Amino acid sequence: MVGPDWMEGAPRPISKILVANRGEIACRVFRSCAELGLGSVAIYSEADRGSLHQQTADESVFLPGDNLSDTYLNIEAILAAAEETGADAIHPGYGFLSERSSFANAVKGAGLVWIGPSAHAIDEMGDKISARRAMVTAGVPVIPGEELPLENPDDMVDELVRAATRVGYPLLLKASAGGGGKGMRMVHEPRNLQREYAAASREAATSFGDGTVYVERLLEKSRHIEVQVLTDTLGNAVHLFERECSIQRRHQKVVEEAPSPVLDAITREQMGEAAVNAAKAVDYEGAGTVEFLLSEDGEFHFLEMNTRLQVEHPITECISGVDLVVEQIRVAAGLPLPFTQSDLTIRGHAIEVRIYAEDPSNNFLPAIGPLAMFRPPTGPGIRLDTGVREGDAASIDFDPMLAKLVVHAPDRDSAIRRMKRACEDFVLLGVTTNLGFLSDIMGHPAYHAGETTTDFIDVNWPEGWSPETSDVAPFVAAASEHYGLSRKVTTIETEGGRGSPFNPFLSLRRSFP
Fold this sequence. Notes:
Helices cover 33% and strands 23% of the residues. By secondary structure, the protein is an alpha+beta fold. The protein folds into three domains: 111 residues, Rossmann fold; 74 residues, Dna Ligase, domain 1 (2-Layer Sandwich), CATH 3.30.1490.20; 240 residues, 2-Layer Sandwich (D-amino Acid Aminotransferase, Chain A, domain 1), CATH 3.30.470.20. Strand 11 and strand 12 form a beta hairpin. The C terminus is likely disordered.
C-alpha cells in the first residue's frame, strides 16, 4: 500500500496501523491515524464485541479465547491479524504488551514497523535495578537505595537488614520488574521488614514472574513529577515539560496536571535536561516518560522510566500543542522531529482526572454496572478520551477506568474551575463512579494551594472519603424510571461537598422539573 503524501521519503513508510490494545487508548490512536490519512485495524475479544474501539477502526479482527493470554496478550494472534489485514505497523498503546521487549522483537521480526522504543531500551528501563544503574552512569540523580544479592539467597535476611539499616527508615521495598504499585511495601519500623519483604517478593513473583526486590529510601511529603520526552532515530531529543501526578490512590494516579504548580524555571530546565539525558543513555526512540520524585527540600530524584505512551499524555498535548501519537508514528517511520527544544513553550494549564467505575467511599473498590446514562460535559477547553458510550457496561473483565476527562485553560485557577464544573456536568448513571470524589478534590483548599504531595488523599481524608447527602433524589428517581434503570433509586448521596454539594445530575433538573 502507498502511504499519505507526508510519508514520502520516510525510511520505513507506514500506510496502515494495527493497535494491539483496546478501549480508550485504541480509540485515541485511531483518531490520529484518521487525521494522518492512515488505515487502522482494531483487535477485539468476545468481551469487546461491538465495543467503541472495534467500531472506530477501519477494520477489526476478532481474537477468540476466554482470557487475556488468548487475546490481548497473544503475540502470535496479533501478528496474524496484522498479516490478515495488511497492516504494516503496530502501535501497542499502554498496558498489555506495550513494554514487552519480546513483542517489540516479534513485530520487527515479522517485517512490521514497531511504533515504540527498541527492545534494548524497554529491557534496560523496564527493570528498575538496571535503570538505576544506567541513570547513575548518565549522571541523573537517583533515590538512595541498595540492591539485594541474588547469588546467596541464604544470606538474604541478614543482607536485607544491613541494607535497610544503611538506607534508613522509613523505606520502600520495590519490585525490580514492578509497576502500578504491585510488589511495593512501605516499612516504617525494623520489626516489619522481613514480613513486608516476603509480601513484596511474593506479589512481584505473581504479577511479573520475577520476585527480585530492592530497598529504597521513602521520601515522605514528596511530589510525583514526570517529564515527557520525545526522541527520533537521528539523535534529536526534546522534552515537552512536566506533569504533576502526585494525587494517587494505592500508588495509582487519579489527578494529573501540567505544568506542576511548584516548579520554578530553573528546576524545570534541570529536570527536563535530566530526562533527556536519561533517554539518551539508552538510545531511546519515540515518546517516553521519565518519572521523578521531588522532595520537600526541592531536590529531585529519578524514579523510573515508562517506555510507552502514558495514560496522562493528553495534558502534555494541551500545553505543548504537540500530538504525541502523531510524533510516535513519524519517528517510527524514520522521520526527524519537526521541532527543537527552543520551539516548544508552555501554553496555559491542563488538568486530567481519571473517571473510574469504583466506590471511593469503600476503599476505591471496583464497581460493575450499566452505563445507563453517559452524557459527558461540553464546552471550550474540554476533552474526553474514552472507549465507552451510553449503553455499554462496566465489567470485571478489564481495568475500571471509564474515561479521562481533560480541561485546558489560560491559567491554573481557571483550569480548576473548569474541571470542577465539568465533573458536575458529567451525567453518568447506572454504575458507581469516583466523579464526586474528583469534584471534591477540585474544590479542596489544599488542591487550590498546590499542596499536592503523594499523601494528599491520606492527609485530607484520613478516615476515608464519604459522600454528602443532597436533594437530587427526586431527579435521579425520575431519570431512572425514564431510562429504565433496573435498580430502584430511593435516595442518592452526592459525591463531594465543601459548601456546594456535588450534583452530577444538574441537567436532569431541566429534564424532570
